[in-house]
Amino acid sequence: MPTTAAAAAREILVRLHEVMAARSAAQTKLNGVVNIIGEALDSEVCSIYLLREGVLELFATRGLDERAVHVTKLALGEGLVGTIAKNVETLNLDEAAAHPDFAYRPETGEDRFHSFAGVPIIRRERAVGVLAVQHVDPRRYADVEIEALQTVAMVLSELIANAGLIDDAASDSTRPLATGPNRIAGFKLVDGMGAGVAVFHQPRVVIEHILADDVEAERRRVYAAFDKMRDQIERMASQAEFGVGGEHDEVLETYKMFAYDEGWARRINEAIDSGLTAEAAIERVQQRTRMRMREISDPLLADRMHDLEDLSNRLLRIVAGQLGTAAQMGLRQDTVLIARNLGPAELLEYDRRRLKGVILEEGSLTAHVTIVARAMGVPVLGRVRDVKRLIAEGDRILLDAGAEAVIVRPSTAMEEVFEARMAVGQKRRAAFAAQRGEPPVTRDGTRVTLMVNAGLRDDVAALDLTGADGIGLFRTEFQFLVSATLPARERQQRLYRDVLDAAGDRPVIFRTVDIGGDKALPYLDHDEDHLEENPAMGWRALRLALDREGLMKAQARALLEAGAGRTLNVMFPMVSEPWEFDQAQALFEAQRRWLGERGKKLPIDVRYGAMLEVPALAEVLDLLLPRLDFLSIGTNDLTQFLFAADRAHPKLALRYDWLSVSILRFLRRVVRPMQAAGKPVAVCGEMGGRPLEAMALIGLGIERLSITPAAVGPVKAMVRSLDLPRLRADLAAMLDMPSGPIRPQLEAWAARHGVELA
Predict the structure, then answer these.
(1) Residue 420 lies in a domain
(2) Is residue 46 annotated as part of the catalytic site, yes or no?
(3) N or C end: fewer C-beta atoms under 10 angstroms in the chain?
């Protein structure tokens, strides 16, 4: 067996080229293919399964019982072969029978074979078959063998397509499943509503030729395409329209870094070495990237793999000489863009006057495209499964990211309802904007402090747009999450100073970096001890920062220098014990002294707060109170810890209620000692941004809320309609002697007393 993937694949492809060029029947060619692969990989079994009428049929084999050909059939998801096709994934097993999806078919005579490896045969991004090898001895196939199989599978897709063996119903990714009105669910990435016609971001590049006649000529084509692609990226980055200095600039810098990545270029060259054309080599590496993306659980790394896919698509279009994305063709009418995923640079190419929304098959809240879309003000709905099978080019689209839904091909009645909702939304936003200058004061004269959560420099604009009192939570980790390397102290300082300057005399509470756990950074070393099954309760936030003292010292100096001449508010996340707060405060104070000794200008005051997210802190709050300037309750993490329920788990998301007796009693127990000590207590989390839940929090004595900018208007309207003394008395009675669920009781109370909850 050759020692490199390119050599292994080349050896097989040379022989396959002869088989494909022969004037023989398709079945004869497939029989020849399994023999060639089996011999080249020294594998006792090689089999080809093709998807026909929705099932995988054994079409050719070397090593299994010949009588099983065209007899053995597996449904998608059935057995190892069905699992590979359904998930479009590769399997490499030293003991096939130990896999949970293993299914034995006696007619094949495969009971004596132990090892198994299989790769999907892909056409138009869908599995149309499976190429599998087996061996008597238990062994895992080497990486070079697997890569050779994947390359051969790509060539096989062309062979079986030319032979008319591909099931059109299975491979046609352009035909929608339905023609009438359809409501499709998704996941809100950027809030907002928009309507327009469906336009696919990326017209499919059809690869006509897979096997290269001249390897060096193909290599030159790729080099020229790389040069052109890099020029395009540089030009786009220099023409970005929403100013300089925002986090989106850092996203683009990271994106540019991928464009110049030598490892990516080397992998494409290796694929060309195996005998593929430039287009096929790019597609081959792209397929490998997609398979890796399915195996990545770290959302940040997955997002960066999306950036690489974006660049692969761009490179493929350049080398194929095709026009490009819908952006290059120009948007002629109001448009909702459809894509599997988008890179940040590709989104920037679109005309914002015509782009009314984006629908993604994938996507995440921390994805680079989400950050850029937020800066552009474009609503985005993600995780819309099988989007290309449900939506056709030119379909009328009604997108409501806030409701986490999209309506395709709406009826006239649906259009009217959507337009009415948009009009109501515009009217409500206008009403909230009109009271922007009005203070959030209850009917009895109690002033409630409404602040906003932020994480990007551009988010500070929400203060003026909403009339909020300040920033109650500035998530400093966003700068770390969108950076390719650890942000230098000077860059951190510049961000913090810009935020303080933009906020003016309104307070900003900076939460020290909350990374680690499910927000892992690839540029921070993690040893095997830190691979966590439950990252939300693991090595993260203050725990990580105290362990990585250099990281926290740099952030402390950046914050102290940025806050020179002002009051600096610093909050430590996920404090579990008083000593953790003390250690973090001591670190900041040491940096404060160090700067002072060197004549640096310092803040006039530094106020230190803690986030109560870990329930254990409530039991020792009396010990911490003397050193604490303020407390913020992070209701998102707190509630999942109280209930031992992962808030991201779909089966648990609606199981536990923020307005349960247990949560409200716990919060009341935290509030009472804070009030007795005269220390401010706030809530920063989704709970405070919902009018009914915010009403309950205020009823408990929490008069400081830090919420999303969009929630400020509705919560302020609720506050201004509230009779607080009556609420506090009645809520106390509900909690002291519960007579059932609290939520319906609070809803009824609000209706009786004219509280605005819309």
Answers:
(1) no
(2) no
(3) C
